[in-house]
Amino acid sequence: MASTMSQRAVLKSALAAGEKGIGYWLTIPGPAVVRALTGIGGFNWVLIDGEHGQINDKDFYELSCAVAAAGASPIVRVPNAEEYMVKRALDCGAHGIMTPMCHSAEDAKKVVAWNKYPPTGTRGFGPMFAGHAFGVSEGEYAQNADSECLVMVQIESQRGVDSVEEIAAVPGLDVLFVGPFDLSKSMNVPFGSKEHQDAIARILMAAHDNGKTAAIFCSNGEQARQRLEQGFDMVSIHTDIGVIVQGMTRELGIATGKTQEKKSGGYS
C-alpha cells in the first residue's frame, strides 16, 4: 500500500501513471494568487520561482502549503545551484526542487546529493516543517522524502546541451527541464531557429533515452500544446504575471475602444 506521502505527491504520481505534467509559473508571493489560479483545476504542479520571481525563501513555506492545499505539487526553483538553498526549499515543503543552469553531469550529481539524506546524499536533517505540504508527520516525511521529492535540473546553455546525454544518465535525477530563452541566448541563435529547435529535440531525446521526464517552459497554451505533441511530458502554460498583464491589457483595450470585443450575452 502506498504511503500517504506518495499519495500526496501529485506530480510524481501523475508522471508515474503516464499522465502529463501541466503547471504554471508563480512569480508573485501571494497565497491568494495560488488559490485563485490553482483552484481553476487541471494543474498538477506550480513552479514557485525563487530565481526571477518576486519570491524568496521566507515565502517558500506558505506558498508550498497553499499549492499543496489546492491539489497540486509545489516545485521550488532556487536562485542558484547551492546546497543551502536546496535544503531550505526542501525543508519548507517543496515536492520538488528545480536548479537552474546545469552544465555537466558533475553539476547534476551535486544537485542530486543535496536533495537526498545520507547515506545517499548530503542533505542536512531537520524536517520539522517539510511534511506539512504533504500532510504527513515529520517521521513519515523523513522516511519517504528521498523517493517522493523530485529532483529537476534546467538545461539552458550550450554547455548543457553538449553534455546532455551524460547529465540525463545521472542516477537520482528525475526531470530535465528546458529553459528555452536562456538556451537561445547561450547558443547565440534566434529563438525558434532550426539550431534552437534541434537542441531542444536533443534534450528531449536524451531525457527519454535515460528514462527521465522531459519538461519545458512555455509562454502560452498554444506553445504548451505543441510541446506536448512533440513528446514532452511536462509543460508550463503561462506565468501568473503574464496572465494578469495580458488580461488587463485586453480589458483596457475593450473599454477604450482600441480592441474589438466579440459579441456575447453581456449584462442586461
If you had to describe this structure to a student in words, what would you say it looks like?
The protein has one domain: Phosphoenolpyruvate-binding domains (TIM Barrel). It is built from 13 helices and eight strands. It has helices at 4-8, 10-16, 31-38, 57-69, 83-91, 105-115, 138-148, 158-162, 164-168, 180-187, 194-209, 221-230, 240-256, and strands at 21-26, 45-49, 73-77, 96-99, 150-155, 175-178, 213-216, 234-239. Helix 3 (31-38) runs parallel beside helix 4 and helix 5 packs parallel to helix 6 (105-115).
- Tell me the name of the CATH homologous superfamily: Phosphoenolpyruvate-binding domains
The number of domains: 1
**What would the CATH topology be?**
TIM Barrel
Share of helical residues: 40-55%
Order of helices and strands: HHEHEHEHEHHEHHEHHEHEH
Annotate the secondary structure layout.
Layout: H1 4-8, H2 10-16, E1 21-26, H3 31-38, E2 45-49, H4 57-69, E3 73-77, H5 83-91, E4 96-99, H6 105-115, H7 138-148, E5 150-155, H8 158-162, H9 164-168, E6 175-178, H10 180-187, H11 194-209, E7 213-216, H12 221-230, E8 234-239, H13 240-256
Parallel strand pairs: 1-2, 1-8, 2-3, 3-4, 4-5, 5-6, 6-7, 7-8
Helix pairs in contact: 3-4, 5-6
Pfam families: HpcH_HpaI
Domain HpcH/HpaI aldolase/citrate lyase: 25-243
GO molecular function: aldehyde-lyase activity; metal ion binding
Brief description of this entry?
The chain has 13 helices and 8 strands.
What structural keywords apply?
268 residues; alpha/beta; TIM Barrel; 13 helices; 8 strands; 47% helix; HpcH-HpaI_aldolase; lyase; aldehyde-lyase activity; HpcH/HpaI aldolase/citrate lyase domain-containing protein; Pyrv_kinase-like_dom_sf
